[in-house]
Amino acid sequence: MRRSTAALAVVVLLATNNGLPASIVNIVSHERDGSIRNSGVFTFEGYLAAGRAGGLAGQPVPDGSGILLFELPSLAPGQTILEANLQVTLLAASNLVSNEHADLYALGYVETLPPENDTNASWYYENDINDTWYYSGSLDTRNGNDLGTNIGNTPIIKIADDFATTSTPLGDVYTDALADAALVGFINGLYDEHGAQGGDYLVMRLSANQLFDQNYHRYLFYARDNTDAETWPVLSLTAVPDPSTVVPEPSSVVVWSLLGTVGITSGWWRRRRRLVWLRSEG
After folding, report:
1. What is the residue-averaged pLDDT of the chain?
2. Pick from 146, 177, 145: which is nearest to 159 by CA?
3. Residue 80: which of 182, 179, 187 has the closest Cα?
4. Are strands 171-174 and 41-43 parallel, antiparallel or unpaired?
5. SS3 letters across the chain
6. How many angstroms separate the CA atoms of 83 and 85, rounded?
7. pLDDT of 10-30, one tens digit each?
8. Are 83 and 241 in contact (CB under 8 A)?
9. pTM of the full predicted structure?
10. Cα(33)–Cα(48) distance, integer angstroms
11. Are 65 and 50 spatial neighbours (Cβ–Cβ below 8 Å)?
12. How far apart are the first and last CA of the chain?
């Protein structure tokens, strides 16, 4: 049985503009989110880093990507995702120049997370997250087979180009309408085409749009591994039934039609004609 540790909350039940019942589910990023470095080290320092750190003495200067992990909800037969939105909190944009941005990708999904391997220090794991998930550059063209994310030869997708830039204010950052639509299509594809189910983990990445060539040029976003729950990354999904599977509730028109079969409609119709006639007389 797959372990469920992500925070899932059905916030509200509502009806969409086509009358279908829907529910909004807020999913907090898993506590194992963090930053994957080009050295293969996975850090969990309370933030997600996209860009270059300072490096350690005698070691190559590390570049990093922030990894987000969201536990997918279970969908009933015929259900689909109608809307999606990602919220993260920008903690810092350090020492950046104007063309240094952070992009947002969706990589696929994994069924389980690897065991923790805390053998090196109190703030990082080594080789417990797939190191191929790291990337810095303008466009990652790899696919699910390359990254081990269960989408086969389907390419990963850039959800948002320039998700954060040097002009992005610190604080909450949301995906825009175009990114939301791309996220909806990608997540539905995980369920419909690649066998994802509730309890699997959607993998997303915040990464630099190029190799930042100066130390400590980086974007820092709050991770789940910090004490302020208000800053945790949240994926909001709106799920609806498939319209072809919905049996509409009886409307007043349907009720009156049924009543007409036992002779009541004719009386109502005569009364309606009488009212119309009286109005024409007046």
Report:
1. 77
2. 177
3. 187
4. unpaired
5. CCCCCCCEEEEEEEECCCCCEEEEEEEECCCCCEEEECCCEEECCCEEEEEECCCCCCCCCCEEEEEEEEECCCCCCCEEEEEEEEEEEEEEEECCCCCCCEEEEEEEEECCCCCCCCCCCCCEEECCCCHHHCCCCCCCCCEHHHHCCCCCCCECEEEEEEEECCCCCCEEEECCHHHHHHHHHHHHHHHHHHCCCCCCEEEEEEEECCCCCCCCCEEEEECCCCCCHHHCCEEEEEEEECHHHCCCCCCHHHHHHHHHCCCHHHHHHHHHHHHHHHHHHC
6. 7
7. 444 454 444 556 788 999 999
8. no
9. 0.77
10. 8
11. yes
12. 75
Q: What is the distance between the alpha carbons of residues 72 and 75, in angstroms, rounded to a whole number? A: 9
Beta-bridged to residue 251, according to DSSP, are none
User: What is the Rg, in whole angstroms, of the alpha carbon atoms belonging to the chain?
Assistant: 25
Residue 277 phi, psi (nearest 5): -60, -40
Domain ranges within the chain, ordered by starting residue:
8-245, 252-281
Question: What is the Cα–Cα distance from 143 to 49, expressed in whole angstroms?
Answer: 23
CA gap 273, 267 in Å, rounded: 10
What is the reported pLDDT for 257? 32
Question: What pLDDT is stored for residue 249 in this prediction?
Answer: 46
List Cα–Cα distances, 50 to 63, 101, 141, 216, 243, in angstroms.
8, 9, 18, 10, 41
In 3D, which of 282, 105, 63, 93 has the Cα closest to residue 204?
105
